[in-house]
Amino acid sequence: xxxxxxxxxxxxxxxxxxxxxxxxxxxxxxxxxxxxxxxxxxxxxxxxxxxxxxxxxxxxxxxxxxxxxxxxxxxxxxxxxxxxxxxxxxxxxxxxxxxxxxxxxxxxxxxxxxxxxxxxxxxxxxxxxxxxxxxxxxxxxxxxxxxx
Length: 148
Ligand SMILES: CC(C)(COP(=O)(O)OP(=O)(O)OC[C@H]1O[C@@H](n2cnc3c(N)ncnc32)[C@H](O)[C@@H]1OP(=O)(O)O)[C@@H](O)C(=O)NCCC(=O)NCCS
What we know:
This protein has a single domain, classed as Hotdog Thioesterase (Thiol Ester Dehydrase, Chain A). The chain has one helix and six strands, in the order E-H-E-E-E-E-E. It has one helix at 30-49; strands at residues 10-16, 54-59, 62-64, 73-83, 87-96, 102-113. Strands 1, 2, 3, 4, 5 and 6 form a six-stranded antiparallel beta sheet that branches. Strand 4 and strand 5 (87-96) form a beta hairpin. The longest helix is centred in the first third of the chain and has 20 residues, at 30-49. Bound molecules: coenzyme A (COA).
């Protein structure tokens, strides 16, 4: 594992590998991991682009470098690598919290910022925020405006 690969990445989310997350081999099921990463990437994109309406467009080659066992603690990290006009590209790393071994890397996860009709729409951002200054205030399901 190259520590330099992880530079700049914040590992926000931790998971405990449970029986329902295992494959037939008794190790972490790749599908569970991808579900967690897709959700993590969606939340990251919402925070960066200030819009609840973001959709997964593209996931590049996924390299499962090591496995995890039941009871292991893993952590997931994401960092934005490119702000496009309507898209955001992220890099993902998942690692074992105890051994620090990298379990998986994904070089490019692309999310697209869409409007009410599901059409790509410019997000207007070009750099990462480390704060909560872009949090959307309007919820897409309810239309509620939350000020607090
Ligand atoms: C996301 C969606 C609206 C984009 O529509 P589209 O016609 O491809 O839109 P565009 O060609 O205008 O591309 C939009 C952005 O995506 C990027 N993009 C398109 N195809 C891409 C690909 N294969 N890889 C990486 N980026 C891609 C474009 O470069 C563009 O980014 P930019 O504006 O920052 O330059 C449409 O493909 C869609 O609805 N897909 C389903 C999304 C979904 O439901 N995801 C959940 C998984 S089921």
